[in-house]
Amino acid sequence: MSAGTGILHSEKNDSWRLSGGDAHTDPVHFVQMWVVPDEAGITPGYEQLEIEGELLAGGLVPVASGMDRHDGTAAIRIRNRYAALHAARLRPGQTVELPEAPFLHLFVPRGAVTLEDAGELGTGDAVRFTASGGQRVTATEPAEVLVWEMHATLAD
User: What is this structure's pTM?
Assistant: First the structure.
């Protein structure tokens, strides 16, 4: 979602009100992450694509990116040419390698992993890196990881 200017947004779990059905009783779990666009005053927009097959294939999958190298591969195009969000669903023992970047942000929305040279991370844990990459993340139980790769500098 590109909020742009003049957009109102709500994350209420009340779609049942529109359909006239019973109120939802299942808990909702979602992760909301924001990245500032390259330019101000962009037009609001929304895009959603299915990437289940790519996630099941293993490895880090570009989920959202503004980087030229992800043209045609990222699920969602964002308006920041220096940033990309990757996701992975890992089975126990499965490993992914973090991309090389001036700035990385690793978040574990579900499960448990071991981060090479750092130790155990569980649901809700996050690590920020500078001038890094190449570390390996290995699932110790079924897990999901989200990785922001960022290449902007203060001069950009």
Answer: 0.82
